[in-house]
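tool_log.txt
---
The assistant was asked to compare two proteins side by side. It first ran the structure predictor on the initial sequence, then on the second. Raw inputs and outputs are pasted verbatim so the downstream comparison step can read them without reformatting.
(1)
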Amino acid sequence: MMLEILILGVLIYIILEYNGSISTNKFVMDNSDLFKKLKEKDFEFYAKAKYGDSVDVEKLFNVRLRNGLLVILMMVFLFITDLNYANILFCLIAGYGVFKLSYLQLKKYYKSHLHKIDLMLPYYLKNLEILVQHYTVPVALGKSIEEAPNIFKEGLKTLIEKINAGDSTINPYMEFAKEYPVRDSMRMMRLLFRLSLGSNERKQEQLLTFSRNISSLQQKAREARYKERLEKMESKTMVMLVTTGVGVMVLLVISILMMFTAT
């Protein structure tokens, strides 16, 4: 009975949505100020980290809201014959869970890719080092955006905007490092800040220090990649050995059983 009510409710919703009697998207847009309070502070960062700068963050957020509301509506139809405070609360929790799910997936994606960011950072910094030899640090940062990995681009734009707005402190550099909390990001941003303050006489010396640190990071990244390949090869070898061992055991058991049945 409950399944029939749910199917009927879904059909009614589709018909009303199709003929324009109701509009979930319009409801979300009309109440956007209220729903924005549910938007996580770091949602935009995680969305752009996964999909790039071209992603429509508002559209993505509205899709989350719509999915959550639809789940609430479907759950209400499911419990329509036994609607009480407990069931209503359950419907709201289910809808909120669906709403939060995509955010948690984006967050998980970012955390799972921190290692990848860790490996990409030294090569981005190497490109930046070449630019710093010919331009000031703010200009070099601006020119590096085009070749930077997508995940760094939003943070770089924010960093440059703060520097261009007149913030000559280390804060913009540290905020960038905190946004990408990978190995040695803090130290490299401090070195970059000192390089931006250095006079022409000291620039070459500071560049050498910066270059040595980048080379060290690249070496660590190469070692990490080599270790990953080694671990993958070891795991494949282990799987092959286990599979072979299990196969041999199965054949041995079968042969023993055949011997017993023969006698």
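(2)
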Amino acid sequence: MSAVLSIGAAIVAGCLAVACVAFRRWGVAGWSFAAGMALLAGESIFAGLSAGAADWEMAARWQYYRLGVSSLIPGTWLLFSLTYSRGNYAVFLQQWRYVVGAIFLVPVLLVLGFEESLMNGVGRPEDSTAWFIAVGWPGRVFQMVLLIGWVLVLMNLERTYRTAVGIMRWRIKFAMLGLGLLFGARVYTSSQALLFSGVATSMAWIEAGALLLACGLVAASVARSGIIEVDVYPSRVVIHQSLTVLLVGLYLFVVGVLAQVVNALGGDMGFPLKALFILMAMTVLTLVLASDRVRQHSMRFVSRHFRRPLHDYRKVWTAFTERATARVDRTDLCREVVALVAETFNVLSATIWLVNVQRNRLLFGASTSLTEQKATELLGDQRDLPVLLALLKEKNEPVDIDVLSEPCVEMLRRCDPDHFGKGGNRVCVPLIAAGEVQGVITLADRVSGVRFSVEDYELLKCIGDQVAASLRNIQLSERLLESKQLEAFQAMSAFLVHDLKNTASALSLTLRNLPVHFNDPEFREDALRSIRTAVDHINGLISRLTSIKEGLRINSVEGDLNELVAKTLQGLATGTAGGVEVMMEFGDLPRLSFDPEQIKKVLTNLILNAKEAVGAGGRIEVSTASHNGWAVVTVADNGCGMSPEFVDRYLFRPFQTTKKKGLGIGMFQSRMIVEAHRGRLEVESEQNKGTVFRVLLPLARRKPETAAATQGEYL
């Protein structure tokens, strides 16, 4: 009898595999399903032949062939479970690639490498027609890997099923239950093989029966909805609350105890058959408990006879808070909302459409029944959208779109197809916040065709207001981010322009003095050096434009600060010679760590600012010294000075300046550079008397910061 049932199951599984290959609609999931069904068919054939063998040698031979085919099954079905009905399956394949590889390779290596010790012997217990094939340690490891594979497959199928909601869950429910039954039976048979250190051919009853039931449920799923796969996007995070792990752990404990009790009492020859009937009963019970219609009828029965409200508002708001308020991405928020709405109101079709004000169009947010491609096709012509939005804004409450007679509502009816034709009324919930329509939620195909009540409308209104507020907050956050990005771009642009302005000032001063001192060879040499330095600086700025996203980087080297100050003054000497007295005084400084290019920018900015402040006949004093662990560079002038208010409130803020042609970025950039060196930039100024700037750099070798951390609010 076991052989006949196994052959029958193999034929049905083979037909499913052939049908899948013939239609070829599934991609990776489809091919893995076809391969998995073909392997199950082959395994079932060998299991039946082994169970019906006349002698132990034939039973052992067919059993070895069966194990060879079985070695490929868990890896194939694990691949299927990672790709089935998942729009983001590539992410999971990348994440699970090593696990899939191990589940594929380990059983195959055990079968090929330990052929002699895989099975220790074959016998037939008294009063039994079934063979018992004892296994060695490679066989026990083989069964352990199979058991792990079945559990992983069940975990991934559970994750997909729990992520799907509404019509998407309805479409795949029978297929998921069938596959869950199939691999639940496999967990049982593998655990028995581990428990008794052997494989009983009587277990072919259970595996063949489970395979037949699974094939029937998969076929029923296709006949029911015409489609067996949908697109859902499960989280990449492992589901720690997975029911699979809990149920398998509980099952292994109970079955282990039960099997030992049965064995101690002398055994039960009908135990496998009874286990098969229990498995079938559990499948029927699961189908009933998973029914949306049964759940809705039970809720209405409790509400009608025990005077309880249809909705537990505290539970609804707790679920909304936990699942929606923490979402900062619009798409993630929409997915959580449609799932919550579908579960709360027992609707199979819930869709969020978002309003794009700039393009004056509705955009697909998320749905329990539509894919993004299908939703885009349904949108079609949207010329009536402004009229529709005005109508929804005026009503500002959930409306029955099958009752409204306005022509513009036809677009909503087109976007919210009634899949079953008897799913009750179709409802639209406008999402309005700050006087603007953020989007709409459309609901259809309610279980059993129950119409929405006043209580349902009130709860929908509350949920819609909260969703609109969340969408509005995300919109404002995106605008703030765009504003900060624009501000960062402006700040970096200002830095570059300011550097170019300083270089242009130096070149301008050189050209101004060129006619006067052209015959002086030393002046010409200094002028050429200044021009060469300016060109190198401009080329450096251009090369750094490609890495503007990285922000300002401090590349410190050990150097002589006095030498850098002298070179900076020498580079500006041709420009500062015109009527400005420059006094230099260098103190004894040890070598210290700094970025010469960036510190030169600071010194150039301070000296040019001082020159502009003093004018013709003024005096600038540049000095260096060491004081209390700091290297101090002082730039003092006797120019016009600055008011205390400007120094305290505006001097180091970007885009604030007292110069007619200034950009207001130089001091902001200078302080940023100095602070990135873990230094300080100090200022003392008095109007009509002059200004003193001090650049303090640490003498100790402390690692400078990257300016990206300092300028975080601007970049």
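---
observation on (2): Confidence is low (pLDDT under 50) at residues 235-241, 703-715. The longest strand covers residues 436-446.
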